[in-house]
């Protein structure tokens, strides 16, 4: 069973110039409706990489087809759909497979009160109505996690979900609280970035 799925709304953007800014990356894809972006340094090459999240799935597909290999400040970008962990590969606790990386996210919230019929994709789409999430997971017992690109997005989501929201035409009460996972060190994010770059090189 394949443990990785593809986020059809988001693209990995590889082989960017080392000093690429978030503003420059967004400008590169300005022909499309962008709802989120991120730039990360590579510790193994002289380039960096990033992620772009589109408002519409068709825009992500179009950008993947039309911008593959396009020149960006003298370098040809490499594009692919953003890879995410397939929830079907989770063990019984729901998070054991993911917790080794969950601490990599700077703006992370614990999500409480998730309905039993809500998947991680449902949660991500629900959040999309209010702000841009970088990552979502849903485990057992109505507990999940959501990470955001910015502190402003995270705080906005916390405020929005302090009241009931609509899911499948019914009101539900989901609460977001800033997550603290002391057993996971932030330094893990460095090795994670290296592994991503190697896969794309």
Automatic annotation (TrEMBL):
Q: Under what name is this protein listed?
A: Serine/arginine-rich splicing factor 1 (Trinotate prediction)
User: Which keywords belong to this entry?
Assistant: mRNA processing, Nucleus, Repeat, RNA-binding
> Can you name a GO cellular component term?
cytoplasm
Superkingdom of this protein's organism? Eukaryota
Keyword RNA-binding attached: yes
* One Gene Ontology MF term: mRNA binding
Please state every residue range assigned to the domain named RRM: 9-84
Q: Lineage of the native species?
A: Eukaryota, Metazoa, Cnidaria, Myxozoa, Myxosporea
């Amino acid at each position: 069973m394949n443990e990785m799925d593809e986020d059809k709304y988001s693209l990995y953007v590889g082989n960017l110039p080392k000093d690429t800014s978030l503003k420059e990356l967004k400008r590169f894809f300005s022909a499309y409706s962008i709802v989120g972006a991120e730039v990360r340094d590579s510790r193994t090459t002289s380039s960096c990489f990033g992620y772009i999240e589109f408002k519409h799935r068709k825009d992500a597909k179009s950008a993947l087809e039309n911008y593959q290999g396009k020149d960006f400040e003298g370098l040809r970008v490499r594009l692919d759909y953003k890879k995410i962990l397939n929830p079907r590969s989770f063990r019984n606790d729901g998070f054991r497979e993911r917790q080794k990386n969950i601490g990599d996210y700077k703006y992370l919230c614990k999500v409480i009160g998730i309905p039993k019929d809500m998947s991680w994709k449902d949660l991500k789409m629900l959040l999309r109505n209010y702000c841009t999430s970088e990552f979502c997971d849903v485990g057992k017992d109505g507990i999940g996690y959501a990470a955001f690109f910015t502190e402003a997005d995270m705080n906005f989501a916390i405020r929005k979900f302090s009241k009931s929201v609509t899911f499948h035409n019914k009101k539900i009460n989901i609460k977001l609280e800033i997550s603290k996972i002391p057993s996971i060190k932030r330094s893990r994010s460095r090795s994670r970035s290296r592994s991503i770059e190697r896969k794309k090189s």
